[in-house]
Design brief:
19 helices; elongated; about 550 residues; three-stranded antiparallel beta sheet; about 15% strand; alpha/beta; nine-stranded mixed beta sheet
Length: about 550
Amino acid sequence: MNYEAEEMVKRLSDVADEEMADDVKARMQETARLHLEKIQQIYEEGLNSESDILGEKVEAQPQYVTQSDATSPKNTTLVKPLRKRPLHIPKSAMMIQTTLFVLVFFGISIVGLCMPLRPTESEIERRTLTEMPKFSWETLLSGEYTEQLSTWYADTFPFRETLLTGYSRVKNLFGIQNEQLIGDAIIADEIPEVPDDEDESTASGSDATDETTSAEQPTETTPEVTPEQTTPQPTTPQPTTPQPTTPQSSEQPTPGTNSTVPENIGSVYIYGEQAFSLYGFSLQNSNQYASLINQAQTALNGKATVYSMLIPLAYGVQLDADIWEKMGWSDEEAAIKYMYSKMNDEIKTVSVYQNLLAHKDEYLYFRTDHHWTALGAYYAYECFAKEKGITTNPLSSYETRTYDNFLGTLYAQSNESQVLASNPDSIIAYVPKATNRIKIWQKNGETMNWPIINDVSQYKSAAKYSCFIGGDQPFSVITNENLNDGSSVLLVKESYGNAFAPFLVDHYQNVYIADFRYCKEKLIDLVETYGIQDVIFLNNLNSAGSTSLHSYLQEFITK
């Protein structure tokens, strides 16, 4: 083809020499040269059509490589290159692949339908899995039944936890990931600004004076509790078990510490070697929580002093602000201030954020769990003591106990992240000076005497947070026999209160602890029956913003 083009140029040149003027000849020669270069470019780029040059639609031709003699275009030869032959897969191999796929698919389906293999409890997540929905024509027609059935099928799939763990380990094979977000992105409301005259810090917390707090302590008209009245009597006779000195099971705490009501942990963010639970401010939920605390204070007006302690999550204290601002997570300090501004003036709001922030580089929160450590709880206790007007015990005065190899809720939520597994937590607990005994009313109604700080060194790694007050129990009582002044406090809490409760023991004759998710007694009844003087509502921000937990709190405070 190159040879033919060159011949065309030569003929045009000959004609031009005989019939045309020099300027016309030059233009035709230049045009022929450009056509020749274009044709050469087409072949070099592997095009199979000359339609771009000639304006004709021609059938695509096979590509050729030219080999030319530099002295004459007539010696040019066309060499057809070797073509790659298409990969040929034998039909037998294709049949084997198809058969294997079908067998694996049906095998997984059959395993999924085996009811005896389906788990009912998640040991890693420490919760009851979804139950199979009950059939009804109404839910079927509305589509609710199929949706519930799909949730049940996925949540209770046989070997679910093994598969999730395997998936996490496969992901880690792709290299070290400095940060991961597990779960949905946070969608938060904008936090309204709190005017300076409504800022909780100006009326309570770190700025409160000892004179103010002491003046508002209960008067002598408050019923005094005698030692004989310090132990609550259950509504029905309950058997009492012997006082154990060591755990009766190496697998889980005997008092049954696993929560049946899950706390709202939210999405999980892994940054470096630490996991963080996240929080998104909800205006409606925040107003609802403040309203509930107001209801409690109104019911207890003239009977007990109400304290509110809202605890921030780890990310707002230990991560730089530019990280959580960029990710759209809520400003926890601003959220706490807003909720405090919506509470009655009679409520003692305790600000702990700044004191935690001042110690942000210390071990305030666990790496693998959504709870704070006992050290973080101690700094909150300092804030409460300042508001209450009492003197704290120095940290060095406590006996300490350490339990290693703790892998908590965030480790479970991350499908057992290998980054977290390689960096388990240690639980450092501080034993109260007055006593280390607590009487517990369990969920099954039975009572038992138990250590406030229990030895969990032989427990499974996921259960070690239960070293504090026996875990999440409906109702508990701690009696300080070194005091006989009738002082008493009721701690209304979820699991964040477990690490905080031991610090109250040395300041009250009687410490009552109610987990509002399980306690069947009413708030007002407890206060009136035992002459309780102080009531502390202690909740982390995710619990305070959880509508499901609001219903439990509402039931607890409503007479």
